[in-house]
C-alpha cells in the first residue's frame, strides 16, 4: 500500500509491519489527509482483530523462541539491545528531514517544529539505548536463614521484561510517541506491538521500515495501523499482551483500564490529558512570562498535553500581561506548515477543528474575547488563530475542559492561597508554571501544586533524564528518566541459601 501524493518525500508502505515484514494491505483501509490542504495523501491499512492477533503472536514468538533462527529476545543481553536502539537513533538522525516532513504532512506541524520534535525523539531513543544496560534490582544485607538449617541467606531482586507490550499512541507528537513507547519497551527487554494514531500514521510507518534496517530481528518491533476500534480495543483485551503503555485522552484511558480488567489484568500505564495552569506573580519577569505563556498555548497549534491553557495573573499586572500576550498573538498568523517562516500550522483534522470551534462558540457566553473570534472563517485547511479569553468564572467549560487548540484563559487573582486553590481545583495534574523572582515563594508554591512537573520561570521542559507523567486523571506511570524501567518490567525476588 503506497502513498499517492507527491508531497510525501519517499515511498512509504502503510500496511501493518508484522514479524519484520510489511503484510499485504488489509481488507479495510482509511484515508490519510493533509490538514493544511484537506487533500487525501495516502490510504492506510486498518488492522482487523485477526491482524492484531498475528502481530501479538509474532511478538510473543520473538520473545520466547525467536523468529527465522534469531535467538529468543528474552535472552538477548542489554548491550545488544542498546546497540540496536543506538543504530535506530543513528538512522533517524540520517533521515531527520524525511521524518520531520512526514510529521508536518499528516499532523500539520510547521517544519521547524517538526525538526525540533524529531531531534527530541532521537535524544529520547539514545536515552532508552543507554538505559538498556542499567536495568538493575536490589540486594540486601545477607542474614541467617529463618528455616533453622543454620545456613545463611543472600537475597536480591531482579527486573525482568513482561514479554509482549502494546503501545497505543495519540496523534500530536508522532515520532516522539513511537520512541518513548518502542524505545522503553525494547530497552527493558520486551517485544512490542505499537499502534499509531489513525490520524498520523506516516512517521510510525517509516520508523517501522528503519527498525528493520537497523537490524532488529523480526517480531521485536511490530507496527499496526487502525482506529481505536477494532485495533486498539483488540490490543487492550488481548490475553497475550502483558502490559500496555497508552498515551491519549482520559476517556480512552478509562476504557483501556476497564478492558484490562475484563481480560488478563495487564499492567496499564497512562499518559493522559491536562488543563495545566501557570501563575504569574506581581514580581515576575513579565517579558519572559508573556513569551513563555504565548509559546505554551500556541505550540503545535495548542495540541500539547502539558500546555498552560489557564493562566492566573496577579491583578496588579493583569493589564500589562494581557497587552503583551495580545501583541504576540497579533504577530502570529497560522499558515502553511511547509513554509520556513511558519510558526503555527493547522489543527490535525476536521474533527479536532469542529471540537475547537464548539468551544469557541461556547466562549461567546462564557468569556470575553481579547484576541480571536467565536466564529472563525474557514477556507482551505483547519486553521484557528491564537485566541485569548477572559472567562466569566472558573466554572465554565473553556476553563475546565481540555480543548486541545490554541486557546488560553487568563484570570486575575489576589492572594497566593486563593490562586493555589483555584489552580488545583481540577481533575487534571500534568504540569504547572510559576513566574516569580522570589525563590521562597516559587518553592512554596511548587510544593503545593498538584502536578507531575512544575516549571519555575520557564516554559514546558521535558528532560529525558527525569520522569514525566501526570497526577490525578492525567495519568499513572512515568516516561523518561529511570522511572520508566519500573513501569516496563516485572520484579522478581530471589533468595539463595549458602
Ligand atoms: P484518543 O484517546 O482519542 O486516542 C489515542 C489513541 O487511542 C489512538 O491511537 C486511538 O486510536 C486509540 N483508541 C481510541 N479508542 C480506543 C479504544 N476504545 N481502545 C483502545 N484504543 C483506543 O486521544 P487523541 O485525541 O489521539 O490524543 C489527544 C489526547 O492525548 C489529549 O487528551 C492529550 O492531552 C493526550 N496526550 C497526553 C500526553 C501525555 O504525555 N500525558 C502526550 C500527548 C497527548
UniProtKB/TrEMBL annotation:
UniProt entry keywords in alphabetical sequence: Oxidoreductase
Domain Aldehyde dehydrogenase residue range list: 25-494
Q: Where is the active site?
A: 271
The reply on keyword Oxidoreductase is: yes
Enumerate the Pfam families for this protein: Aldedh (PF00171)
Question: So which domain of life are we looking at?
Answer: Eukaryota
What are the protein's GO molecular function terms?
oxidoreductase activity, acting on the aldehyde or oxo group of donors, NAD or NADP as acceptor
Query: What Gene3D superfamilies is this protein classified in?
Result: Aldehyde Dehydrogenase, Chain A, domain 1, Aldehyde Dehydrogenase, Chain A, domain 2
Family membership? Belongs to the aldehyde dehydrogenase family.
What's the name of the protein?
Answer: Putative aldehyde dehydrogenase
Amino acid at each position: 500500500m503506497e502513498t499517492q501524493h507527491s508531497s510525501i518525500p519517499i515511498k512509504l508502505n502503510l500496511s501493518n509491519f508484522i514479524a519484520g515484514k510489511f503484510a499485504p494491505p488489509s481488507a479495510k483501509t482509511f484515508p490519510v489527509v493533509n490538514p493544511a490542504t484537506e487533500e487525501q495523501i495516502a490510504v492506510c491499512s486498518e488492522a482487523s482483530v485477526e491482524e492484531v492477533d498475528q502481530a501479538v503472536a509474532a511478538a510473543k514468538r520473538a520473545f520466547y523462541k525467536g523468529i527465522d533462527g534469531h535467538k529468543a529476545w528474552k535472552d538477548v543481553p542489554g548491550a545488544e539491545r542498546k546497540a540496536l536502539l543506538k543504530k535506530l537513533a543513528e538512522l533517524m538522525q540520517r533521515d531527520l528531514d524525511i521524518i520531520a516532513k512526514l510529521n508536518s504532512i499528516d499532523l500539520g506541524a510547521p517544519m521547524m517544529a517538526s525538526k525540533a520534535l524529531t531531534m527530541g525523539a532521537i535524544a529520547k531513543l539514545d536515552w532508552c539505548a543507554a538505559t538498556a544496560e542499567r536495568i538493575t534490582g536490589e540486594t540486601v544485607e545477607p542474614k541467617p536463614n529463618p528455616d533453622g538449617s543454620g545456613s545463611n541467606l543472600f537475597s536480591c531482586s531482579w527486573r525482568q521484561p513482561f514479554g509482549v507490550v502494546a503501545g497505543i499512541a495519540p496523534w500530536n507528537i508522532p515520532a516522539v510517541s513511537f520512541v518513548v513507547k518502542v524505545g522503553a519497551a525494547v530497552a527493558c527487554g520486551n517485544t512490542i506491538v505499537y499502534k499509531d494514531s489513525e490520524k498520523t500514521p506516516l512517521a510510525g510507518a517509516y520508523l517501522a521500515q528503519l527498525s528493520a534496517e537497523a537490524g532488529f530481528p523480526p517480531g521485536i518491533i511490530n507496527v499496526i495501523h487502525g482506529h481505536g476500534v477494532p485495533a486498539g480495543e483488540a490490543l487492550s483485551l488481548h490475553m497475550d499482551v502483558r502490559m500496555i503503555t497508552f498515551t491519549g485522552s482520559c476517556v480512552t484511558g478509562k476504557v483501556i483500564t476497564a478492558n484490562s480488567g475484563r481480560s488478563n489484568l495487564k499492567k496499564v500505564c497512562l499518559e493522559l490529558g491536562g488543563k495545566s495552569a501557570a501563575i504569574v506573580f506581581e514580581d515576575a519577569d513579565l517579558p519572559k512570562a508573556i513569551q513563555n505563556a504565548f509559546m505554551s498555548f500556541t505550540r503545535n497549534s495548542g495540541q500539547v498535553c502539558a500546555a498552560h491553557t489557564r493562566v492566573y495573573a496577579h491583578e496588579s499586572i493583569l493589564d500589562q500581561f494581557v497587552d503583551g500576550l495580545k501583541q504576540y498573538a497579533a504577530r502570529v498568523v497560522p499558515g502553511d506548515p511547509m513554509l520556513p517562516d511558519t510558526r503555527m500550522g493547522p489543527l490535525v483534522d476536521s474533527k479536532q477543528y469542529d471540537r475547537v470551534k464548539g468551544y469557541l462558540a461556547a466562549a461567546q457566553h462564557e468569556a470575553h474575547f481579547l484576541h480571536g473570534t467565536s466564529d472563525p472563517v474557514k477556507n482551505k485547511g483547519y486553521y484557528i488563530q491564537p485566541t485569548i479569553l477572559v472567562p466569566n468564572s472558573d466554572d465554565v467549560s473553556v476553563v475546565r475542559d481540555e480543548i486541545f487548540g490554541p486557546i488560553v484563559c487568563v484570570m486575575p487573582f489576589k492572594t497566593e492561597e486563593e490562586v493555589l486553590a483555584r489552580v488545583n481545583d481540577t481533575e487534571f495534574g500534568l504540569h504547572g508554571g510559576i513566574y516569580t523572582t522570589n525563590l521562597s515563594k516559587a518553592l512554596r508554591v511548587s510544593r503545593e501544586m498538584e502536578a507531575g512537573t512544575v516549571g519555575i520561570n520557564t516554559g514546558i521542559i521535558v528532560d529525558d533524564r527525569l520522569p514525566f507523567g501526570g497526577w490525578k486523571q492525567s495519568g499513572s506511570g512515568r516516561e523518561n528518566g529511570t522511572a520508566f524501567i519500573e513501569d516496563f518490567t516485572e520484579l522478581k525476588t530471589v533468595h539463595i541459601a549458602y
